[in-house]
Specification:
Layout (H helix, E strand, L loop, with lengths): L4 H14 L9 H23 L3 H6 L11 E5 L7 E5 L7 E6 L2 E6 L2 H14 L1
Antiparallel strand pairs: 1-2, 3-4
Helix pairs in contact: 1-2
Amino acid sequence: MKLTLEMAIEAFADWRKNKKSKAEAMPELLTKMIKDLHPIYGTTKLRQSLGVNRNQLKSLGIIDTNKTKSITPNIDNSQNKFAVAHVNSQELNGELVLKKGNNSLTLKLPHQHLESYLPTMAALL
């Protein structure tokens, strides 16, 4: 069975409900869940959903050094006038926003898939 964020949320709730003391260390299974889900959901989503803080993530080796990652827009001079973004970070949590006038299109994917979808998105424009 594939790990989902909902499964992790439930596991964290169960642990918090049943732990014997406030100082009890996070079980290894929960730390593994965080490490497995981080590339998909990123630091902010995991912190909000699982109720963990930056220090806990840092202790697991998950360091969010920059709040903003490098995406360099390049305005194409074609008639569409959309910005085409190229992903320059392996840590990016995969969000691409294309805007034209009042319209926008947002694509959210794990960072390892985003760049492969850029040609397809460009073709739709």
